[in-house]
Amino acid sequence: MSLPIKQVGLTIFVFGCILIVIAGCGEKPVAVVNGDRITEEEFVDKLKKAGGEQILQQMIDRQIIEDAFQKAGLKLSEEDIAASLQEIQSRAPSPQAFQEYLAASGVTLEDLREDLKLQMKVEMLATKDVQITEEQLKKFYEDNKGRYDKPLRVKMSEILTPGKQQAQQALEALNKEGASFAAVAEQFSVSPATRQYGGQRPVTPIDQLFPMELREAVATAEEGEIIGPIETAQGWYVLQIEQRLPAETATFESAKEQVNKDFKRSRAVHIDVLLKQLRQEAVVKIVAPEYRELDSNYAGPQELPDFGGEQSPPVVTPRTEQPAPPPATQTE
């Protein structure tokens, strides 16, 4: 189950708004339009009607997953979470680009971390019963050997201009003493993907560079070299080669950790089956009348805790149908 980042942020925001209303601040305005107030209570009511059921479902599923993970005795280290988060960050052209992506998504780094943590727990639950032998791993490696080789890669920055004349002007600016490629890129480049990041591109295999016209020139360029102008259908490119990463041929031993992960994923219980099973095993009772239809997703509680205040809803007998079994474990 993958919960989109924007949904995570919305869940946190709506939940916070609901707490504000519960605290008795529902009449406080969130906006005043021509002298008329839009109160927090009105605002939250609209949010609940627009996405309340979906968000409640997500919050319940999150708790179910957390409980199942703990019950299964699984452990997720802070080091593993940090490594996965670092991998995601490395895909952005620059740290600044990554921060701007988070801001545009309406979430913080901690929101992303919590969402990633949940997804890692789901994967561990889905693969916990997969049986592995050394022979299976070796065969999986041989069948997918090319996946683990690392081709020649390059880290570079670009300036894209609509015409050759502008590309020549960019080159002249780069040849001036003390010139900064990032500053020249911001001045001349029209690339929507990299201009605001000083022209930086993420590390990319040379045989996957786009446009294709760049590949031949980059293949023979040295670190630190500025090349161009290069004509393409998109425009004229000026490139600076920052780093060349040599090709690496994997061995079973060097790739074993990743092979193990990939093999498990190939045998994992499908997420829809896993989530259905966890829901059927969970003790859940939807108390809010407007969301009672969600009750059909769960077995229902044998008893409901008394939280005080109004009388607890009547006890609902759990449904008796069995959860869908996970797919049979495949064998080689």
Give the neighbour order of strands across the main sheet.
4-3-6-5
What is the averaged pLDDT score? 83
Largest sheet properties: 4 strands, antiparallel
Give the N-terminus to C-terminus distance in angstroms.
27 Å
Helix/strand-derived class?
alpha+beta
Topology:
Blueprint: H1 5-25, E1 29-33, E2 36-39, H2 40-71, H3 78-90, H4 95-105, H5 109-127, H6 134-143, E3 153-161, H7 164-174, H8 181-188, E4 204-205, H9 213-220, E5 226-232, E6 235-245, H10 252-266, H11 271-281
Antiparallel strand pairs: 1-2, 3-4, 3-6, 5-6
Helix pairs in contact: 1-2, 2-5, 3-5, 6-10, 7-8
List keywords for this structure.
alpha+beta; Chitinase A, domain 3; four-stranded antiparallel β-sheet; two-stranded antiparallel sheet; 11 helices; 48% helix; flat; disordered C terminus
How would you portray this structure in words?
The structure is a single chain. The protein is 48% helix and 11% strand. It is of the alpha+beta class and 332 residues long. It has a 4-stranded antiparallel sheet with strand order 4-3-6-5, with helices on both faces. A two-stranded antiparallel sheet has the order 1-2. Helix 3 (78-90) packs across helix 5 and helix 7 runs antiparallel to helix 8 (181-188). The protein is flat and about 70 Å long. The relative contact order is 0.12. Residues 1-25 and 309-332 have low confidence and may be disordered.
